[in-house]
Amino acid sequence: MVVEEPTPEGAASRKLNAISEAISGCQKCPLAATRTHTVPGEGSASAEIMFVGEGPGRDEDLSGRPFVGRAGKFLDELIESLPMRREDVYIANVVKCRPPGNRDPERTEVETCSNYLTEQIETIDPLVIVPLGRHALGWFVSNPRITADHGKIMRHENRILMPLLHPSAGLRSTENARRLREGIHNVKEALLEGIRIRHDANNRQISGNEDGNVAALQAAGNTDAAKQEPATEAPDRQEPGEASASTGLFERSQTRDEVEAEIRRQRAIEEAEAAAEEAQTKIVVDDRQASFF
Prior knowledge:
Uracil-DNA Glycosylase, subunit E; 6-stranded mixed β-sheet
């Protein structure tokens, strides 16, 4: 009998299912009394991109799925233009139940529901989060300026935020529709910047581990050995917008497979560099320990 090894994506899917079940039974705020269905979210558990809206509308409340009305169809069009598929990303909302009359969620409702979105983000761990509209952006930043920040690539903790106007704004204005069709394509640059952020974070973690080993050697009295520098250094961080061959390749990608292949290539480079640095760190530490004894 062949026993399949558990995969990170499988574990993430199970965690997302557990979150969805908790949302389905939630009675923590008055929205529970007026909803037809909860709308937890849907998509890939290993999504690189996560779209976050404000809250469900009438169509979403009836179906239990996010962004399925007219605004949802426009969002699908934007995603397909990347080109990607809806099932390649994850789509959720700040609040998981429809506010009556499609009103804005109240602060207490947002605060009550926030833990669910936090858990979804931590589980999926996307490179890029795309807040859709001012209220969704306001969940992440204290002073949301959706008109000014539309399409901008913004660093937020260990990932990228790239706010967009809400798709419903594109249904009301041809100018907003144009801005959305243009702005969505900044996701490609945002993904590459997200990969660079993760790469830098991995390098800092490796450096921190090495510093701890050096400190231990210093405490043991092997100061001279501890002063030795590692043989390799982490590459300098490339700033957003700086020209690079990889960015050019990404911008020239015309199919979803090419986009995904470029992401995999960048991640393979990242993993190879991290593995090489970890191996070098182990060699240096082993040499220092050998000289100590």
